[in-house]
Amino acid sequence: MRKLFFVAALMLPMLAMAMGTTQTVEFKVNGNCGGCKAAIETAAKIEGVAKAEWSVETKLLSLTYCTETVDLNDVYQKIADAGYSSEKLEATGTPGCGNTEVQSNCGSDTEKKETTVRTNTGGGC
Ligand SMILES: [Cu+2]
């Protein structure tokens, strides 16, 4: 009986870790138009991301994802691949919206902003 309790006590935290939680983070991505919005959101929606919403006004991407299946670095990479700089990675190539005019500021303009982690919609995933 005591041994069973010990095993159960050991398993519980492991189970909680394996389940993961739904988390929402907000970070800066340098876009500037409606085309940027579509390209950024599409790039950010990798498997395990429930919601990706970028604002033209604030330049912030709000990302709701599962901590178990999503590595945030993969999201930063996808965004950079799509041609947008974020607080973590510089853009590679031209912006996904197709607007390459320097004055448009699409994709470039790296103003850094701390990631704000807002917990949670609650529950596992
Ligand atoms: Cu654009």
Topology (elements, then pairings):
Layout (H helix, E strand, L loop, with lengths): L1 H18 L2 E7 L5 H11 L4 E6 L5 E7 L5 H10 L34 E3 L7
Antiparallel strand pairs: 1-3, 1-4, 2-3
Helix pairs in contact: 2-3
This protein binds copper (II) ion (CU).
Q: How would you portray this structure in words?
A:
The protein has 125 residues and is of the alpha+beta class. The protein has a single domain, classed as Alpha-Beta Plaits. Helices cover 31% and strands 18% of the residues. It has helices at residues 2-19, 34-44, 72-81; strands at 22-28, 49-54, 60-66, 116-118. Strands 2-3-1-4 form a four-stranded antiparallel β-sheet. Helix 2 crosses helix 3 (72-81). 26% of the residues are buried. The protein binds copper (II) ion. Copper (II) ion binds next to helix 2.
What would a concise description of this structure say?
By secondary structure, the protein is α+β, with helices and mostly antiparallel strands.
Strand arrangement within the widest β-sheet reads 2-3-1-4
The radius of gyration computed from the alpha-carbon positions, rounded to a whole number of angstroms, is: 18 Å
Number of strand segments: 4
Number of discrete domains: 1
Going by helix content, strand content and strand pairing, the class is alpha+beta
Low-confidence stretches: none
The H/E string reads: HEHEEHE
Shape: elongated
Secondary-structure arrangement, i.e. CATH architecture: 2-Layer Sandwich
Can you tell me the CATH topology? Alpha-Beta Plaits
Which ions and ligands are bound to the chains? copper (II) ion
The end-to-end span amounts to 32 Å
Beta-strand content: 15-25%
